[in-house]
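Quick note —
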Amino acid sequence: MTKAAVKGWIHTGTGTYTRRDMRILHTSDWHLGRHFGTQPLLEDQREFLRWLLEVVKEHRVELVVVAGDVFDRAVPAAEAVEAWREALLRLRSLDARVVAIAGNHDGPARLAAYDGLTDLAGVWVRGGYARAGEILSIEGSDGPLAIVPLPFLDPLLAPTPAEDAPDAASIALGAATGAAAAGATSPEPAPADPPPAVARPTHESVLRTALERAVSSIGGRRSVVLAHAWVSGGLASDSERALTVGGAGQVEPSLFDGFSYVALGHLHRPQSVGGRENLRYCGSPLSYSFSEEHDKQVLLLDLAPTGSVSIEPLAVPVGRKVATLTGRLEELLRAPEHEHARGRWVRVRLTDTGIVLDAKTRLRERFPHVVEVALAATSPGRGEAPTDAHGAGGPAKSSHELALDFWSKVMGESADPRVSELLRSALEHARPGQEDA
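Predicted structure written out below.
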């Protein structure tokens, strides 16, 4: 047994080990089936899953928690579904149980379609409101653990508190119908009072409602919450889909008070939130945008029967990192300081001021995984809007003059005669026989 595997175990003195604390692995935001630009990532994701299985085996993980966004789409491709199924089969073959929740990218009804059946196999998958906040009681090698799965809960789909109860109008109509059938004379109905205003559900309110069901039942037992949400104070990347417009989708860290550990999903950057070490995002296992230059990781937890937890980040060694390079084309093709980006997903911001032909093709000779190439602003005038047709109160400009102004603003220099003539010819072709106003 390796030194890492010994952690969390007690040597009995007879050459065997007994479990001291329950070992849990926290992972999230796999986004199976995602692309980086136009490049498919499923093979990189499969490589991550193979590595994850080795981690589970080496560290004798008892429970794997997946905090949402298993898939990248609500209706995932067949290959992505097969990768998920294979991962579950392999995890169970290693005697690791799995608890997973739907994220905002997942189709909750599809992901959790067989949760009642898979429960029997040691795989608990929850999605939507039906079982949100329901407590799972799992027996670990060192005692019981209460788990509260909280999938992404869309406030727009929140059930109303009295959804199944008959309303006052239905009761009145039923009474009037019964009276008429008995030959009775119905009195004039009294004017109905306007219905009371109902507060619109928010992410915080629907999560609070679900958690309140669980808190009263846990009663001080050690517990783990899985939640797919944006907790206030968490740092986002460019690749997360907004939960709502503005910041209304965020929830306060205090919402999760009273639990031993909170396994968060949604934000792709590994981080603790609100100054609480037990309130954690593990982040996505791969980089899904150029803002994700940070290292990727999963979290290995040792959760004691008392509820105290120790956390060990494990760096994910697979998948491509990202790089953003800025400079002139010829410099990028030759400068040795850019060699580190050869195997990465690459975004290029060119600072050339003239016409650059076949830039992406040429860059791929050095950087095979170039995803994006664009011109970068390099001069004070570059990127500014062109002047209007009359300048600053001056005489009207021709279409050709406006085109030349636009060229100089975008390119940072005046058009040479060849470009000027090309623009004139293009405008004449687009507007044959028309004179400038």
